[in-house]
Amino acid sequence: MQENDESVVVRAECPGFEPDDFDVQVRGDQLVLCATHKSEEESEQGFREWTRQELCRVVSLPSGVKTEEVDAKYQHGVLTLKLPKSEESLGRRISVKG
After folding, report:
1. What percentage of the chain reaches a pLDDT higher than 90?
2. CA nearest 23: which of 31, 85, 15, 1?
3. Half-sphere exposure of 39 (CA within 13 A, CB side)
4. Number of alpha carbons in the 13 Å side-chain half-sphere of residue 62
5. Quick one: how far is CA 92 from the chain centroid?
6. N or C: which end of the chain has fewer CB within 10 A?
7. CATH number for the 2-90 domain, one of 2.60.40.790, 3.90.79.10, 3.40.50.300, 3.40.50.970?
């Protein structure tokens, strides 16, 4: 997780999944990231093999994040979430008079 003046960026390495496998939710001040991938293969000998891959992580978010404007992208096995900060959390500069 990285935080800058304008947003919070969460990156998670999640190889082997597809974009539709993810269930990403914001619950209060937590980011809940879950993914499930199932596959079934049959060999030439007639054997069937089932695999199931699951991932679930919970990340605490700093206050002042605009949870309704989350941008999520999945490319090359990496899920990237960008959560912009609200105007109140950006702060403002105060001039000091002498």
Report:
1. 54
2. 31
3. 10
4. 18
5. 28
6. C
7. 2.60.40.790
In this predicted model, what pLDDT tens digit does every residue of 62-97 receive, in sequence order?
Answer: 888 888 889 999 999 999 999 998 877 666 778 898
Backbone dihedral region for residue 64 (phi beyond 0: left; psi -120 to 50: alpha; all else: beta):
left
User: Is the pTM for the entire model greater than 0.90?
Assistant: no
pLDDT at 50 over 80: yes
Please enumerate in sequence order all residues whose Cβ is within 8 A of that of 35, keeping only pairs 6 or more positions apart, or say none: 14, 17, 21, 22, 23, 53, 54, 55, 56
